[in-house]
Amino acid sequence: MLRISKLTDYGTLVLTHMASFPDRLFSATDLAAIVGLGAPTVSKVLKSLGRHDLVRSVRGLHGGYALSRPPAQISVAQIVDALEEQPFGLTECSASAGTCDFESDCRIRANWQRINGVVRRALEDVSLADMVSPLPVAQAGGARPIAGPQSIKGRIAP
Amino acid sequence: MLRISKLTDYGTLVLTHMASFPDRLFSATDLAAIVGLGAPTVSKVLKSLGRHDLVRSVRGLHGGYALSRPPAQISVAQIVDALEEQPFGLTECSASAGTCDFESDCRIRANWQRINGVVRRALEDVSLADMVSPLPVAQAGGARPIAGPQSIKGRIAP
DNA sequence: CTTAAATAGTACTAAAAGAGTACTGTTTAT
DNA sequence: ATAAACAGTACTCTTTTAGTACTATTTAAG
Questions:
Q1: Using an 8 Å Cβ cutoff, are A26 and A65 in contact?
Q2: Is residue A59 part of a domain?
Q3: Exposure string (b/e) for B8-21, b if CB count within 10 Å is 16 or more?
């Protein structure tokens, strides 16, 4: 349906809150109360985020979760990757052969891959730091966690 | 799951084939055979596309479907709008209030709307004409059906 | 060394969405 | 009058998503 899953949405909510207090440890229960979601659900989300090294966990009494790195180094794309089941891609034919065997060499596929690229870059270009203090409309410092192309901030202005 | 639905995928397949022969009339049955899908399924897709004026239909014997305008004036965004059930938007909170009432004034929402804008523009910038003869990597004539911003073609190069 | 508050992992159930099919009605050239 | 085509509706099956439950493990504190 061209939507991110609810769990991914929850993930951004939780992480955005955590980004307001980096380094601080939050228990899953506390975060659930703060964000207004069920504790088991938030737990589930945090466990997935932990597996993908977006949060680090401290076990035992007085344990909890904290961001594993500064908010500017966590992009929305990374959150999506952590919480969506399937690999990134708007179409199935990006991954598997599909039914388009008739078309000599599916010309469409290349186009979808380009579109995917644009979408992905859009998600990579927004960091948790941006989520906390929204981007100034005109320009803003990008997330750019790993090694990215130029910012698209200028494009996403209204 | 951040994917377009299969029906939308089928829609691009069918329309791309039709775009190779604009003005020509195709029966749903023929298109199904060409593309390699079930006839009822292709029918369903074409009916939806017709309701959104992407194809025009001719009823009666020797009837069929044809593009309602030149391929360059039909964008992928329009296909998505025609075949996806829900209104365009990566998050639910783009439309309804949601559970984030706790957060004083969901700062996240504005960011999602900007991301949506980028994604949407990416889909608007690819036309059926582009699908038929894939974009040259460097630059290419955009779809720009209605009144769009500048092209993003430069961005989606590999 | 026992306890309680945490996370870790797994698995299950229920609800929602997606996909495909079937059936009935309408149009129109021959 | 007939047959080939589109139009519309509604139903069923499958898949995915969401949420929950249960058990195990870790660790600070008394």
A1: yes
A2: yes
A3: bbbbbbbbbbbbee
Q: Which domain holds residue A25?
A: 6-69
- Nearest neighbour of A115 by CB, restricted to B2, B102, B156: B156
Grouping H, G, I as helix, E, B as strand and the rest as coil, residue B127 is strand
Instruction: Determine, yes or no, domain membership for A108.
Output: no
Q: Which residue has the higher pLDDT, B97 or A83?
A: A83
Mean pLDDT over B132-150 rounds to 46
- Phi/psi at A57 (nearest 5 deg)? -115, 145
C-alpha A56/C-alpha B93 separation (Å) is 28
Residue B29 CA to residue B32 CA, distance in Å, equals: 5
**Which B residues in the span 10-49 are in contact with A, Cβ-Cβ below 8 Å?**
12-13, 16-17, 34-37
A98 within domain boundaries = no
Predicted structure pTM score? 0.83
Of A84, A135, A155, the CB nearest to B152: A155
CATH number, domain of A21, equals 1.10.10.10
Residues 39-98 of B with CB under 7 A from strand C: 40-41, 44, 59-63, 84-86
- pLDDT tens digits along A40-66: 999 999 999 999 999 999 999 999 999
Gap between the Cα atoms of A142 and B24, Å rounded: 48
* B29 Rama sector, left if φ>0, alpha if ψ -120 to 50, beta otherwise: alpha
Chain A residues within 8 A of B100 when measuring between CB atoms: 13, 35-36
